[in-house]
Amino acid sequence: MNKILEKSAKSLISPVLLRSKLSQSNFVDKYRLLDVSLSTDDLADYKKGHIEKAIYFDVGYGTVQTERYPKPFPPKEIFEKYLGEQGISNKHHLIFYDRSPYGFLLAPRAWWVMRVLGHEDMSILNGGFNAWVKSGFGLTDQIDRYQKEEYQAEENLSLVRTYEDIIENIKTKKYQVIDARPKSHFNSINPVLGLPNHIPNSINVQHNEIFDRSTHSLKTQQDLKKLFEDKGINLSQPVIASCKSSVAASSLAFCAYLLGYEIPVYKGSWAEYSDRKAEEDAIKIVKH
Fold first, then answer.
1. Which of 57, 146, 231, 232, CA to CA, is 20 to 30 A from 240?
2. Which residues contact residue 41 at a Cβ distance below 8 angstroms, ignoring those fewer than 6 apart?
3. How far apart are CA 182 and CA 201, in angstroms?
4. pLDDT tens for residues 259-274?
């Protein structure tokens, strides 16, 4: 078994296993359970009912949204302080869940953000909040407060790709670029660029294709492997994950991780690429 597979074996956790862990007397010492959002928009839902011991976790804390960067990466120093204030330390095993239909949208985003910040001991609840509820497990409106900690990030920038990397790759074709956006977006024509609405040579792996609709959870590793293979993607060769704003792309990176492969995410994704490309093309037209 390769080293990534050894680490990823515990990266997906079932509602039953989470329930068992929550009953352990040392859960709070070892773990932090995080109800993931990308703002404070879902705070009311969290207060209404959440899994016991869960912290409301804003993975977009400290960011400023713009048209070019609608879901930016959180500033390191600000986010370190936020993590510590939530009672999260480098020693804790983090368990993420979100409230999207299949539980795999913001939870993988949080997983990727924390991996970039150097955290490795993490799991995602398979099926998320909805799977927990469907399993018949209860919710609470009690909000637990944990003692403040000091969090020190050690960035792993090998998990990040930039606009410059993408432009270089269009020339070299070193990386296979996979795009998690819906097919209708991927295949449309960009009205500003007058070109297909995706990065040249990229392959569409829609976010909703990674789910088993009969179980409302992530597909099995065997089915995920087949999905990538059917798309003509060789995970043993370099790959970059992209989408509109690096949220859904994080899910593709997580799926590859489960299969034993590291995939960096294009941080700016299509929102940045299309905006900067249009700007550069406009400058070229003016100069000519």
1. 57
2. none
3. 16
4. 999 999 999 999 999 9
Whole-number pLDDT of residue 40:
83
Burial class (CB in 10 A: 0-12, 13-18, 19+), 259: middle
Q: What is the phi/psi pair of residue 160, to 5°?
A: -125, 140
Percentage of the chain with pLDDT > 70?
Answer: 97
Please give the distance of CA 103 from its chain centroid, rounded to a whole number: 11
Q: Shortest CA distance to 261 belongs to which of 169, 117, 159?
A: 159
pTM above 0.85, yes or no: yes
Q: Does residue 71 carry a pLDDT above 80?
A: yes
Q: What is the pLDDT of residue 286?
A: 40
Distance CA 60, CA 37 (A): 8
Q: For the segment 234-262, what is each residue's pLDDT rounded down to a tens digit?
A: 999 999 999 999 999 999 999 999 999 99
Burial class (CB in 10 A: 0-12, 13-18, 19+), 25: exposed
- The one-letter code for the residue type at 147 is Q
- Degrees (nearest 5) of the Cα angle 109, 110, 114? 120
CA distance 38 to 110: 9
Q: How far, rounded to the nearest angstrom, does the alpha carbon of residue 163 sit from its chain's CA centroid?
A: 19
